[in-house]
Amino acid sequence: MKSTLPPPVSGERNGRRSDVPFFDQSETFRRLWSEIEGNCVRVMDDGKFSHGSMVAGFERALERYTGARHVVGVNSGTDALVLLLRAAGLRPGDEVIVPAYTFVATASAVVHAGGVPVFADIEEGGYGIDPDSVAAAVTARTRMVMPVHLFDRLADMEGVGRVARAHGLTVVEDSAEAIGMRANGVHAGLLGVGGVLSFFPAKTLGAVGDAGALLTDDDAIADTARMLRHHGRSGRTLAAFPGISNPTVVTGGNSKMDDLQAAVLLAKLTRLDADIEHRAALSRRYDDRLRDLPGVRAVPGDTPARPGEDRVVYVHLIEVDDRDGLVAHLTAAGIGTEVYYPRPLHLQPCFAHLGHRSGDLPRAEAVCRSAVALPLYADLTEDRVDRVCDEIERFLTGGSR
């Protein structure tokens, strides 16, 4: 049976047309529809819709792409973090140092795994965790440190590694945004004991719903994570695994990946490197247009790559003096934006019991007041980037353009 996608409704969001939506992948699906449809039909014919052969095929393909010994497909990047922390040996009450400037899942995963998040500041001139702030946060209860590879660059893994070795800490990576990023040929997520990937639709490799994966070269972590994602089972039988070597693991949950998500991801993986190159070209165009405008504090291209680093632009983040005014202007002009992040984690109400106050982690707090993400995705065109830049220039120069 043949089917076709309907004509795209470009930029329609919540019933309101947007000239440049923050994210849109309708053209990607039109281009890849034949392959996506074929994969989905195979899932239907197989009759296994979760934890089946399509998921296994995607795991193998992602192992080849990343170079990981093990990829464990799960239902979200968040669950991947929880499983990674548990499989890496986090015990109830153990502290995990995380950056204050990141998505809340970084810290909430620590809580769900039974640990206590401890917040550190970000580095000067960047968005990764600051190794000196990590060192200052270490206590007798600290067991792990979780750097986050954020937006378009890796965290300072060399600096984090030095601190971790000095204090006997395990390094786990929140590499949810970092598919394609490498350091000296080693993929993000494989620079510590393990990492994760998120396939949330807007990610560089996105599904049509929630999906994620755990990456590791450690056999024991991979085996434990596979059990944890499936109620502690070692396979697809109803029997619980009889002898888990990690004593902190008691029960698992239901964190399996859906095969229809794997079907979409397998098709999109074939275009990933081309999409990464397109994102890089669009990001450079943004940089060239915006970096010298009055009121622009930083653009991604201002921070050079570390030696041996392969950067991938997932989010094009700029810092501006009047961030909120610019967001309002772009919204009125039909241009989507996202604020990453409106409040640092140490000042979030859910972590108020940890006792932080405004001013404790000043670099994270400052970025939260100035940073805004602009549209960037595989279906975005150069003329739309120019449209966004024209409106930003109009706002920052008082309409003098």
UniProtKB/TrEMBL annotation:
Record region (Disordered): 1-20
MF terms in GO: transaminase activity
One Pfam family per UniProt: DegT_DnrJ_EryC1
Keyword entries, A-Z: Aminotransferase, Pyridoxal phosphate, Transferase
Coiled-coil positions: none
Family listed: Belongs to the DegT/DnrJ/EryC1 family.
Enzyme Commission (EC) number: 2.6.1.-
CDD domains: AHBA_syn (cd00616)
Record protein name field: DegT/DnrJ/EryC1/StrS family aminotransferase
Origin superkingdom: Bacteria
